[in-house]
């Protein structure tokens, strides 16, 4: 009530922008409004990422038909596109700021609203973001796989190979950071296993694409062994992280499919295959 | 040459510190909401341009450039907003509005 009175007074006395806004929000606690605005940000990020994923997939389907007749041209185009998706790095920073802000207001939110109110808008946004990020992850893995096969087809062209290595490593690192930020937001809204979106089942396409990418990089000859191992290590870290965030206990979430096994040790077989066999 | 006139604003209102605190928080929320609208518009723009079956590389690159520009501007603004929010929250902690609110 006190807050509504302030808004009423302020609009009369010339706090311009508040006047139009007070009709809808004057009765709401400012912390709840903040929470709502953060949720809207999360949803906007989710829309951005999923739109990028869908657009890139459409482009891949229309521009990369079967066969490798234009391998060098396609590799150039893919490198160009991946170079322009650098805003995922900016998105990562925005997401970490969002997580910090959400964290800052959490103590106040916990005291002022009940559990259901707290979870309603924020949890939907966090789930949508996590879903959008995974969609982008699948498309990116396909794109990197195609880049790898085209570079492999071109052969020992050092400059393109070096670019392909750098772009692959950087985008995979950005992807892991993106998934981790999206996961942090999920955790802040207490949806650890994201049962609403059937987490484990949705993760399978991403793991499958990662395996395919890992296999392709394992047999790559267009770059040096150290570069190849660096990319394989990054893929392995991402795989391990994804395994770690899958629901751990079937009894707690009976409707979510339990993963068959978790790879131990997590490092790629391509690098440490012999060591694994000895063990 | 004449100078622009600034009206003599003398608001006859009394605001307590707690009310000012609420207004400051509301201003952050409003700014956040308006920025989320801009971001959402950018997402809708991508959807519109890239929804067709025949997407060219030029379209994709142009859209990505536009998003990158918006993201960079947004990031700078978000950092300032984060600082503002932290300052406002520390104001509440130092003045103890929380206890006052609970007493009410």
Task: Explain what this protein looks like in three dimensions.
The complex is a heterodimer of chains A (279) and B (104). Helix content of chain A is 77%, strand content 0%. Chain A contains 10 helices and no strands. Residues 5-20 and 248-267 of chain A have low confidence and may be disordered. Chain B has 104 residues and is mainly α. In chain B, 77% of the residues lie in helices and 0% in strands. In chain B, 22% of the residues are buried. Classes of the chains: A mainly alpha (279), B mainly alpha (104).
Topology readout:
The complex is a heterodimer of chains A (279) and B (104).
Chain A: H1 2-12, H2 16-25, H3 30-63, H4 71-84, H5 87-112, H6 115-154, H7 158-188, H8 199-218, H9 225-244, H10 269-278
Helix pairs in contact in A: 1-2, 3-5, 3-6, 4-6, 4-7, 5-7, 6-7, 6-8, 7-9, 8-9
Chain B: H1 17-50, H2 57-95, H3 97-103
Helix pairs in contact in B: 1-2
Mean pLDDT of chain B: 81
What's the multimeric state?
Answer: heterodimer
Number of strands of chain B: 0
Q: State the secondary-structure class of chain A.
A: mainly alpha
Main pleated sheet of chain A? none
Quote the beta fraction of chain B.
under 5%
Strand tally of chain A: 0
Helix content, binned percent of chain B: over 70%
Shape of chain B: elongated
Largest sheet of chain B: none
What structural class is derived from the secondary structure elements of chain B?
mainly alpha
In round numbers, the mean pLDDT of chain A is 76
Give me the Rg of chain A, rounded: 23 Å
Largest interface: A-B, 55 and 52 residues
DSSP helix count of chain A? Answer: 10
| SSE order of chain A | HHHHHHHHHH
């Amino acid at each position: 009530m006190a807050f509504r009175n302030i808004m009423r007074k302020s609009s009369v006395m010339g706090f311009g922008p508040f006047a139009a806004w007070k009709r809808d929000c004057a009765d709401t606690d400012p912390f709840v409004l903040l929470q709502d605005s953060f949720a809207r940000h999360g949803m906007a990020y989710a829309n951005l990422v999923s739109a990028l994923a869908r657009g890139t997939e459409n482009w891949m389907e229309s521009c990369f038909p079967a066969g490798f007749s234009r391998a060098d041209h396609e590799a150039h185009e893919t490198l160009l596109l991946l170079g322009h998706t650098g805003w995922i790095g900016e998105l990562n920073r925005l997401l970490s700021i969002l997580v910090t802000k959400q964290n800052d207001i959490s103590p106040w939110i916990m005291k002022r609203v009940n559990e259901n109110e707290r979870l309603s808008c924020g949890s939907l946004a966090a789930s949508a973001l996590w879903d959008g990020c995974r969609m982008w992850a699948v498309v990116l893995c396909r794109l990197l796989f195609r880049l790898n096969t085209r570079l492999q087809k071109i052969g020992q062209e050092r400059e393109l190979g070096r670019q392909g290595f750098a772009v692959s490593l950087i985008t995979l690192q950005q992807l892991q950071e993106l998934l981790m930020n999206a996961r942090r937001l999920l955790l802040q809204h207490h949806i650890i296993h994201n049962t609403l979106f059937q987490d484990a089942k949705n993760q399978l396409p991403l793991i499958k694409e990662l395996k395919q990418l890992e296999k392709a990089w394992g047999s790559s000859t267009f770059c040096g062994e150290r570069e190849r191992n660096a990319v394989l290590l990054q893929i392995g870290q991402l795989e391990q992280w994804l395994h770690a965030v899958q629901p751990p206990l079937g009894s707690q979430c009976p409707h979510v499919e339990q993963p068959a096994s978790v790879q131990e040790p997590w490092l790629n077989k391509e690098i440490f295959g012999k060591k694994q066999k000895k063990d | 040459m004449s100078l622009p006139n600034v009206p003599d604003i003398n608001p006859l209102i009394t605001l307590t510190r707690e009310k000012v605190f609420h207004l400051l928080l509301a201003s952050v929320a409003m700014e956040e909401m308006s920025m989320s609208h801009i971001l959402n518009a950018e997402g809708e723009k991508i959807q519109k341009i890239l929804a067709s079956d025949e997407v060219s590389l030029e379209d994709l690159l142009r859209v990505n450039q536009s998003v990158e520009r918006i993201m960079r501007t947004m990031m700078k603004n978000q950092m300032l907003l984060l600082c503002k929010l932290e300052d406002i929250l520390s104001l509440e902690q130092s003045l103890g509005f929380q206890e006052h609110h609970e007493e009410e």
